[in-house]
Specification:
This protein has 362 residues and is mainly beta. It has 1 helix and 18 strands.
Length: 362
């Protein structure tokens, strides 16, 4: 799990605990952490195994406070600067910001969430980008232990100054929340929306770009289950299942392939955080994603259409171990690996990363 995601969930968990236990949220002092890490990346490169060393500087910030009249605010932010040790060092960065405001709306509740994921220098896998997202959720409050329906407007915008994958997504979701206790919670929602790719255009029968842009319709079911075991182990299970229906096409081997991005997809993620001792925290995570394309064919190793629909399975594991002697200085060890398997040899890849570092909390 990314450090920013973990911090955000920690803040939200604190807020939920306060609301469930005393009915109001108290203010917490802002927290900040600075860190430095050394990481070894392992990946396939030109038929061989490649190695790359990364020196990373990171920072985390979190704050949760009560605004009055039953309202509260959660703020979390994190950033990292990476130096990859080629013959000439290469820099990359990533910044994330998450803001949530929750307030009473009559006898119900309104949640406003905004986030930002950005990189000014680009990363190893993408050029520079700016990716804000937002959600406006209206919840029916029927009691803490009862089913609480909700309706939400969701969206995001991806902007790449030097890329061609700019996209605007807008959609809606209906579902319910159910928290029978602080130790267990459920959320299920049905979401539908449209994604407009503002710099991606369709091809004509001769393989020439047209003025018609790419548009995708997404329909998916979202689900989450989370819980606490005792006071020292928390866990979450997230999942999505749905359909992407796209008018995108591609021109390959002098053939026009329509609906090349339409697919069924299934995504699962599991995370555990366990503190067997007050000085030790262990985080474990795993994910899986399956994609079955409706009209896109897999290519053979020679780049010829195989006649079989493209199938992709991605999976990965990650682990993090923190040890602190004084609740200020943290010694950290991390490891992660991901694998992408497909019936198209051009789509398969893998990578492994192991690292160690120090963090200091204020």
């Amino acid at each position: 799990m990314k450090k920013g995601t973990y911090l955000k969930r920690l803040i939200l968990a604190i807020s939920a605990a306060c609301i469930c236990s005393v009915g109001s949220l108290y203010a917490y002092e802002p927290t900040a952490t600075l860190g430095v890490f050394a990481e070894q990346l392992i990946f396939p490169s030109a038929g061989r195994t490649g190695y790359l060393t990364d020196i990373q500087f990171s920072g985390l910030f979190g704050w949760s406070t009560r605004l009055g009249s039953g309202s509260y605010l959660n703020l979390s932010a994190n950033g990292e600067l990476n130096t990859y040790l080629y013959s000439n060092p290469v820099l990359s960065d990533r910044e994330q910001l998450d803001l949530q405001v929750s307030a009473p709306f009559g006898s119900n509740r309104l949640d406003i969430t905004a986030g930002l994921d950005a990189s000014m220098l680009g990363t190893l896998v993408s050029p520079a980008y700016f990716n804000p997202d937002w959600q406006l959720k209206y919840r029916l409050e029927r009691g803490r232990r009862k089913l609480r329906p909700y309706a939400a407007y969701v969206g995001y915008y991806l902007y790449q100054p030097d890329g061609t994958e700019d996209a605007l997504y807008q959609g809606g979701e209906v579902g319910f929340l159910y928290n029978p206790s602080i130790r267990r919670g459920y959320q299920v929602g049905l979401e539908a929306g449209m994604e407009n790719w503002t710099e991606s255009y369709l091809f004509d029968a001769a393989g020439n770009p047209t003025q018609e842009g790419r548009r995708d319709v997404l329909v998916k079911v979202n689900g989450e289950v989370n819980g606490l075991l005792g006071f020292f182990l928390s866990w979450t299970l997230d999942g999505q299942a749905g359909l992407r229906w796209s008018n995108a096409n591609r021109y390959v081997n002098l053939q026009l392939e329509d609906n090349s991005e339409s697919s069924w997809f299934l995504y699962e993620e599991a995370n555990i955080s366990w503190s067997p001792h007050r000085q030790v925290d262990i985080q474990l995570g795993a994910f899986g994603r399956q994609e079955l394309y409706l009209d896109r064919q897999a290519l053979t190793s020679s780049g010829v259409l195989s006649g079989d629909p493209l199938r992709i399975i991605s999976t990965g594991l990650n682990a993090r171990l923190d040890w602190t002697p004084d609740d200020r200085l943290y010694l950290v060890a991390t490891g992660e690996g991901s694998w992408r398997l497909a019936n198209d040899p051009n789509e398969g890849r893998w990578n492994i990363a192991v690292g160690a570092g120090l963090e200091y909390g204020f």
